[in-house]
């Protein structure tokens, strides 16, 4: 058994072995006393975990995400002024010129 940062022991078990012990493994996971790692050819594929523990982990993950509140929203609009298909000027230069012209037009309003 391995120890995790959560102090719960992790039992690693091969899928073929887990099939024959599934009822006991589910009962053990439901008691929240341990986690069971299911492996296939020694590669971790899944965990058996109690629903309450999973819910707590998902809630902790949700709370650790940055809040969207307070972020400024994009306001206004961009007017395309001029011919974006004109020859001799790159599209990025055309867009920059158009954005500057649009900004000047908005400032004049």
From TrEMBL:
Biased composition (Basic residues): 65-76
Disordered, as annotated region: 61-109
Biased composition (Polar residues): 89-99
Family according to the record: Belongs to the phD/YefM antitoxin family.
Full protein name: Antitoxin
Organism (species): Corallococcus terminator
